[in-house]
Amino acid sequence: MLRLITIMLFAAFACGCIKTTLSANSLTGNNPTGNGDTSAAITAIGTPIGSPVTKTIGAAGGTIISADGRAELNIPAGALSSDLAISIQPITNECPNGVGVAYDFLPNGTKFLIPATLTMHYTDDDINGTDPYLINMAFQDSLNEWQVDIFKDVDTVGKTIIFDISHFSGRAFNAMLKLQPEVKITALSGTDFNENQQGKLIVSQGSRPGQLSGDASGGDELSPLPTPIAVSDDKVSNWSLSAGSQNGILSATSGSTVTYTAPNTILQEKTVTAFATVSINAYSVDRLKHKSRVGSGPMVLNIKLHLHPNNLSFSVNIIFNVTDASGYKKDKYHDETTFEVDVKNYLVSVPQGKIQNQAPTVTPASFVSGNTQIDWQSDQYGVINVASVSGYTIIDSLDFNQRNIALRITHSNTVTPTFKITDIPTGDVSWVQGSSVPGYPLAIDFIYKDSVQVIDPEKGNILEGLMTATITPIH
Questions:
Q1: For residues 425 and 419, is the Cβ–Cβ distance under 8 A?
Q2: Which of 76, 190, 252, 313 could disulfide-link to 474, CB 3.0 to 4.6 Å?
Q3: For residue 400, what pLDDT is reported?
């Protein structure tokens, strides 16, 4: 049975204290309201969220890539003195102003005789609200204090950022400047809005002034990464939304923080972009310590906001077709059902009265094959006879801005077809006897979106290719 592999993640804002009176609740960009203290932020350590990849690399060097293909570690010849089993484990990104997934490189504490390079393959979602030239790499020391490395090479065409690393530890990526939700609305992204929902957007500064200007502390490779603070109000202007009268409203056009209000009515899922101009001199520094301005003037940051209708219903039509059900290669078995799925505030219900099971058919119902007469014995239920459906919505593990609907289906009295087999010359009768089955399918998973979807609910199973489920939005 096809199963949509999902991971339920909940916001875990349990965090350590920082060296101020503020709580470090900006683990991944939340509440970036520090008071300007430049001491290192302290947060929880990231927890594993995927499968590790392990590879043995020796003195000749080699490359190991994370399971998601986004973290690529290149170890040069001579960096290791002997063979070592190296692992990359994806973990939650607890770094202030965090960007994307973080990774733990094992065994921790491993030191290289020659620096290795870590290449981050970023996506558009990773840089939502920031710019690749504004992304740095950070790690936690033995006290869980965050240290930041601002020296990197950026390739915006290949969408990679390359850093040097001299030892193994958990590595995260963070943004020097970021336009983001002040407080996450959902457990994962904070960029999802339902009808008339409100949320604050803020431009935060996740680095010290010296780091923004391209200077590391004392000339060292690493320097403390403080808790993010809001950019000064007089540095942020020209807040706006992408064109369209149904995209919602912003409470102001200037200042570091504005309130976004989603439209009263959202007829279909769509993406809206919010823009803000930030007048701060920020520099990017490559691995050879060459500095360059991120932009020639004020920077325009933007963030994509995802709008979802509060109430959306779907018609689900399931069809089962199989040829040669009798074993005589001339018949086609057909069974079908239709039901309605209602989603209100992401709660799923299936009205019992909307379940419509059709009686199965066989075409032709009776035929002759050589000296044999085959007659289908009609039945009421067939292999599909939906008695009830339950379901829930869940965030997609591969796309945190996407929700999926998972349905679990209960059938009753379901049986495979029965055929009467008559030998014409002798009149002898035998049977292709039907048998009780659990009913098909037992589950359907599809994307919560306002467009028609056609899926095979038995994909990857023995019945793959025999069933089709068509999911049609109802307005």
A1: no
A2: 313
A3: 64
